[in-house]
Write the structure tokens for this entry.
Amino acid sequence: MALHLSVTSLLPLLPHEHFTPECKFKESVFENYYVTYSSILYRQSQSGRAWYIGINRDGQVMKGNRVKKTKGAAHFLPKFIEVAMYKEPSLHNIAGQSPPRKTAKASDSPAPQNFSRFVKDSESRH
């Protein structure tokens, strides 16, 4: 069971079993590579400033309307994901692994059998 973080107007952060609009956050990366998360749904009523996720020095979650993006409580270090690099196969390797192709026979072609006569007739008309 996955839990989603949500911010509400009454409580700082809550885990939710279901994804709601209160669980949507905007991730912003600063020049110093710290990451902040602001609520998509909630903003300050007077200034319009976004609510941010913040953790104080004691490790307690702060209310979103009390956290500013410039304060250390709102800065998080991103977790780097290990990336696996794969070499793209060349067309020669792919052609060697593919099943043999079907070759077209003369009888399979949709061209009419009297095509040579048709070409000769059309050349004589010009």
Q: What stands out?
A: DSSP finds two helices and five strands in the chain. The beta strands are 4-6, 14-16, 25-29, 35-43, 50-52. Residues 92 and 98 are 10 Å apart (CA to CA).
